[in-house]
Design goal:
single chain; alpha/beta; Aspartate Aminotransferase, domain 1; Aspartate Aminotransferase, domain 2; 2 domains; 7-stranded mixed sheet; 4-stranded antiparallel sheet; 12 helices; 16% strand
Length: 444
C-alpha cells in the first residue's frame, strides 16, 4: 500500500477540524507512564539511499531461493505457479475487505464463491466460509462452533495437534466455561486407548489433526465412531495438499474440517502468507463464523452473488453473532482458489504423489545412516516424518545452515520427551540431488 504524506498545512487543518492543538492531544487518553513522548529517530534520507539501505538489510536474510528447506511444521515450501500472482496482482482483487455492496462487487463475490466451492470439493463437506485468518484461528473457531452447536462444555484436543494451534485454542476459550482436555500420544499417534473413556455425553467435540504435527496419518474413521456414539462433533485439521491422495474429511464422516491454506499458492516468507479455511456439514452453517457468499438470481433471472445467512453476523445481530471476524484473508484465499483451479483434481493428486514419493525416499535414505533411527515404527506419513538421532542436534543445524540447507525441526522445543528427535519435511521442491546432499552431510 502506498504511503501518501501530508503537508504541514494539511496536518494543521486536520487537527483544527477535530478540535486539538497538536498530535500529542490525540493520545491524551493513554496514561503518561505508558506513553512514548518522543521517538529518537534519525532524520529523513533520500529515496535512493533508503532503497539501498533496505537492500543491504534484505541481503542478510536467508532466502529459500538459495537454501534447500527440509522443514515444515505448519508452513511449507511449495512451488507457486506464475498464474497465481498474475491473477491476485490485478487491481480489482487487491483488497482483503469483504464486499458489502453486492451490486458493485460481483467479481470479488464470484471469486469468493468459487473459492468456497473448491474448499467444499476438497474437504467433501457441504458449506465453506470466505476464509479466516490462519490455521490456528480456524481450529479455535471450530471449537467455538462446536460449543455453540452442541451446548456442551468439553473440548478434547489431540496432543499431536500443532502446539501453537493448541495455544490459540486455549486463548480463544479463556474466560468461557469450556473445559479443554488434551489427549496423550502413543508412538506418534493420538492414543485411541486414552481417547475412548474421554468421549462422553459432556463432549462437544474432538479435534484431531491428520497428518498430525509429527507427520502421522491418524485413524480418523475410528475417532468418528467414538464421537458419533456420544453425540459429539469430530473436527479434523488437515493439510490441503495431502487431500490429493488421502480420504477427505467428508468421506470419513467429520463434521468440521479446518486447516492452514498457506500451502495453496502462498509464499513462506516471514512465517508464511496465511489464510485459514473452514468447511462443515450444512446443519452447522448457521453457527459458522465468518462470511459466506451465496449464488442467487435477480428479478430478471440473471445469476448474481451476495453475502448470505447474514443474520449470523455482527452488523445485524451483534450480541448473537457467531464471531467478530469482519475482514478476512480474502486475497490470500483468492491465491488458494487460483492455485487449486490451476492444478485441478488430477494435478493435485499428482502433486501429492510427488510429495509422498520424495519424502519416503528421504526417509529410507536417512533412516539407514548410523546415528539415526526410526522414531515411530508404525508411522504412516505424507510428507513429514520423525527420526531419532544420537548426534548433537545443535551442531547438525549449524553444519546444515553452513551448507545452505534449512534442516529439520528439533522437537524438543514442543515435546521435551522427544528431545532427541527431528521432524523432517520433503515437498515437491526438493530435488534428488538436494536430498542426497542432505544425506551426505548427516552421515559425516
Amino acid at each position: 500500500m502506498d504511503y501518501i504524506s501530508t503537508t504541514e498545512k494539511e496536518s494543521k487543518k486536520m487537527l483544527e477540524t477535530v478540535g486539538v492543538k497538536d498530535a500529542g492531544e490525540l493520545f491524551s487518553a493513554i496514561p503518561s507512564v505508558a506513553r512514548i513522548n518522543e521517538l529518537k529517530l534519525p532524520g529523513g534520507i533520500p529515496e535512493l539511499a533508503l532503497t539501498r539501505e533496505f537492500e543491504a538489510l534484505a541481503r542478510k536474510n536467508a532466502s529459500l531461493d538459495e537454501y534447500a528447506c527440509f522443514r515444515g511444521a505448519g508452513i511449507y515450501d511449495h512451488f507457486v505457479p506464475a498464474l497465481v500472482g498474475e491473477i491476485t496482482g490485478r487491481s480489482e482483487f487487491s483488497t482483503a475487505y469483504t464486499p458489502y455492496q453486492p451490486e458493485a462487487s460481483q467479481g470479488t463475490l464470484q471469486a469468493i464463491f468459487e473459492y468456497q466451492s473448491m474448499i467444499c470439493a476438497l474437504t467433501g463437506l457441504d458449506v465453506a466460509n470466505a476464509s479466516l485468518y490462519d490455521g490456528a484461528s480456524s481450529a479455535a473457531e471450530a471449537a467455538l462452533l462446536a460449543l455453540r452447536a452442541t451446548g456442551r462444555k468439553k473440548i478434547l484436543i489431540s496432543g499431536a495437534l500443532h502446539p501453537e494451534y493448541r495455544q490459540v485454542i486455549y486463548t480463544y476459550l479463556q474466560g468461557t466455561t469450556a473445559e479443554i482436555i488434551e489427549i496423550p500420544l502413543k508412538n506418534g499417534f493420538t492414543s485411541l486407548l486414552k481417547t475412548r473413556p474421554m468421549v462422553d455425553a459432556d463432549t462437544a467435540a474432538l479435534i484431531v489433526q491428520t497428518p498430525n504435527f509429527l507427520g502421522t496419518i491418524e485413524d480418523t474413521a475410528t475417532f468418528r465412531e467414538l464421537t458419533k456414539s456420544a453425540g459429539a462433533l469430530l473436527i479434523t485439521v488437515v493439510n490441503p495438499i495431502s487431500l490429493g491422495i488421502l480420504k477427505s474429511p467428508g468421506e470419513i464422516g467429520a463434521d468440521i474440517a479446518v486447516g492452514e491454506g498457506q500451502s495453496l499458492g502462498n509464499e513462506t516468507g516471514a512465517g508464511g502468507i496465511t489464510f485459514g479455511f473452514m468447511a462443515c456439514k450444512k446443519e452447522l452453517a448457521w453457527k459458522m463464523p465468518g462470511r459466506i457468499v451465496g449464488q442467487t438470481t435477480d428479478n430478471k433471472g440473471r445469476r448474481g452473488f451476495v453475502l448470505t445467512l447474514q443474520s449470523r453476523e455482527q452488523h445485524i445481530r451483534r450480541e448473537k453473532a457467531t464471531s467478530n471476524i469482519c475482514t478476512n484473508a480474502a486475497l490470500n484465499a483468492l491465491a488458494g482458489c487460483v492455485y487449486l483451479a490451476g492444478w485441478g483434481p488430477a494435478g493435485l493428486q499428482q502433486l501429492a504423489e510427488v510429495n509422498l514419493a520424495k519424502s519416503h525416499y528421504a526417509f529410507e535414505r536417512i533412516s539407514k545412516i548410523s546415528g539415526f533411527n526410526v522414531a515411530f515404527p508404525e508411522q504412516k506419513f505424507f510428507n513429514e516424518f520423525v527420526l531419532q538421532t544420537t548426534k548433537d542436534i545443535g551442531q547438525l543445524e549449524k553444519k546444515l545452515l553452513a551448507n545452505k540447507i534449512i534442516g529439520p525441526l528439533a522437537l524438543r522445543r514442543f515435546y521435551p520427551e522427544l528431545s532427541d528427535c527431528l521432524l523432517f519435511c520433503v515437498t515437491e521442491m526438493r530435488t534428488k540431488a538436494e536430498i542426497d546432499s542432505l544425506v551426505t552431510l548427516l552421515a559425516e
